[in-house]
Write a structure and sequence with these properties.
mainly alpha, Cd81 Antigen, Extracellular Domain, Chain: A
Length: about 250
């Protein structure tokens, strides 16, 4: 027996909610893909900060949201209390996991700079070494894109023996179009070198702060949306069960 009156309105609200929830899942998937494309190239530089894992987590969450929204839509359309309860429990689990992740992220957000500094300094000495092609490419990508050099500043490269010269920086530090292999040779002994002098640590930290803020804002919006969905699902579940008992 189909629900009537107020219950019918709730049924349509649950269905509309899940349709919107489906599109939010697509948005989370897109966010994960965007994060992977923006920061995935730096993954080898920052082993202490699992950037790729964060992107994969968003992608996995998006897939789960799509599946859960399917249960919600089908449960509302069929007026099936079992599917509605499954939807409610899945939604509650996702909400709890999101809340836990947000709390952990908030607690450890101040440690990001320390992790970035430690990982980048460790990576300097392995630049251009055998079997370190991924790390070398990641350093070059970072310095070109962020227009930076070294960790705190360009003099950090004095810990390496680039091209047999302790006074050299990678060519990716060079300004403008001068990207020849030797453009960074000996620049650490020059008072005003033609390379980027600002370190990459702050640029990376700013990027992480920006992404964390965007993800946090998205998480709060989705969390509020999920609470609304749980309320609608439970109201519809109760309506269907009560109607079945008194039919």
């Amino acid at each position: 027996m189909a629900v009537e009156g107020c219950g019918k309105c709730i049924k349509y609200l649950v269905f509309i909610f899940n349709l919107l929830f489906f599109f939010s899942g697509i948005g989370i998937l897109a966010g994960g893909a965007y994060l992977a494309s923006q920061q995935g190239g730096y993954g080898t530089l920052l082993p202490s900060i699992p950037v790729a894992s964060a992107a994969n987590l968003l992608i996995a969450t998006g897939v789960i949201v799509l599946i859960v929204s399917f249960f919600g839509c089908l449960g509302a359309y069929k007026e099936n209390p079992c599917l509605l309860m499954t939807f409610f429990l899945f939604l509650l689990l996702i909400f709890i996991l999101e809340l836990a992740a947000g709390i952990v992220g908030f607690i450890y957000r101040s440690d990001i700079e320390d992790y970035v500094t430690k990982d980048l300094m460790a990576g300097l000495s392995n630049y251009n070494r055998t079997n370190e092609g991924g790390l070398t490419d990641a350093w070059d990508l970072l310095q070109k894109q962020e227009m930076c050099c070294g960790v705190s500043n360009y003099t950090d490269w004095n810990v390496t023996m680039l091209y047999g010269n302790m006074n050299s920086v990678p060519a990716s530090c060079c300004k403008g179009d001068d990207m020849s292999a030797d453009c960074g040779d000996g620049v650490l002994s020059i008072p005003n070198p033609s390379v980027y002098t600002t370190g990459c640590k702050q640029a990376l930290k700013d990027d992480f702060d920006k992404y964390l803020f965007q993800i946090g804002a998205l998480g709060i919006a989705i969390g509020l949306f999920q609470i609304l969905g749980m309320v609608f699902a439970m109201v519809l579940y109760t309506q269907i069960r009560n109607q079945g008992e008194f039919a």
